[in-house]
Amino acid sequence: MADDVRLQSASASSRAENSSKLLVVLAWTFVLVPLAWGVTQTLVKSVAIFR
């Protein structure tokens, strides 16, 4: 019976860790995509200055 409790606890911990990793990946995606777009647009528009 104690083994069942440990197994359930480990499984829940693993799911929480996986969902936490997913949330971190999603959060960084929401940060990096607009950042990359902004940097790209800045570089494209700055080309006109140096021509």
What's the SSE blueprint?
Elements: H1 2-47
Descriptive overview:
With 51 residues, the protein is mainly α. It has one domain (2-50). The chain has one helix and no strands. It is rod-shaped and about 65 Å long. The model has no long low-confidence stretch (mean pLDDT 84).
List keywords for this structure.
single chain, 1 helix, rod-shaped
Main sheet overview:
none
Radius of gyration: 22 Å
Instruction: Tell me, rounded to a whole number, the average pLDDT.
Output: 84
Number of domains: 1
Number of helices: 1
Q: Tell me the total number of β-strands.
A: 0
Distance between the terminal alpha carbons, to the nearest Å?
75 Å
Q: Which residues form runs of ≥5 with pLDDT under 50?
A: none
- Briefly note the structural class of the backbone: mainly alpha
* Fraction of residues in β-strands: under 5%
Instruction: List the helices and strands in order.
Output: H
Task: Specify the helix fraction band.
Answer: over 70%
User: Looking at the chains present, what oligomeric state does this protein adopt?
Assistant: single chain
Overall shape: rod-shaped
